[in-house]
Amino acid sequence: MSELPRKPDEALRQQVISALRDSGRRFLDHNGSSRGYLDKWGLSAEGLYEDLANALDSSDRLFQKPKTFPNQNQRYQCVLTYPEDLPEYPEIETHVTIAPSGKDREIRVKISVHPSNTAQTLPTIPTQ
């Protein structure tokens, strides 16, 4: 495996976990195919948020995603894996876009999801 991308600091990882557990601070990216993949796999957005929050709570495997253009907000990514006895669920790559909002600067997270195409370059996070 080549050198891994940078990770956020612990405080930011904890803020992401907190946002994932707060229904007012998390949302699914509706500009892509995320909803379609969740429907295809029979996963609810709420289930994904819970799985992702729990996985990130037990692992620091959240990595910076390379920017497409210089002024782009920093995005992060990770690869969730579901147990082998659930073959209908592929490895799922999640992209977490962090957007500070409001005067208290609480972050909100936008989640996009699709079958992993970086599983060969990023270590995975198993779900329980």
Structure, explained:
It is a single chain. The protein has 128 residues and is of the alpha/beta class. The protein has one domain (10-126). It is 26% helix and 28% strand. It has three helices and six strands; from the N terminus they run H-E-H-H-E-E-E-E-E. It has helices at 10-20, 34-41, 45-58, and strands spanning 26-28, 63-65, 75-81, 92-101, 106-115, 124-126. Strands 1, 2, 3, 4, 5 and 6 form a six-stranded mixed beta sheet that branches. Helix 1 (10-20) runs antiparallel to helix 3. It starts with 9 loop residues before the first helix and ends with a strand.
**Secondary-structure element order, as H and E?**
HEHHEEEEE
* Binned strand content: 25-35%
Write down the overall mean pLDDT: 83
Overall spatial form: globular
Structural class: alpha/beta
What characterizes the major β-sheet? Answer: 6 strands, mixed
Count of individual helical segments: 3
- Please estimate the helix content: 25-40%
* C-alpha-based Rg, rounded: 14 Å
Point out poorly predicted stretches. Answer: none
Taken together, the total number of domains comes to 1
Gap between N and C termini, in Å? 25 Å
The total beta strand count reads: 6
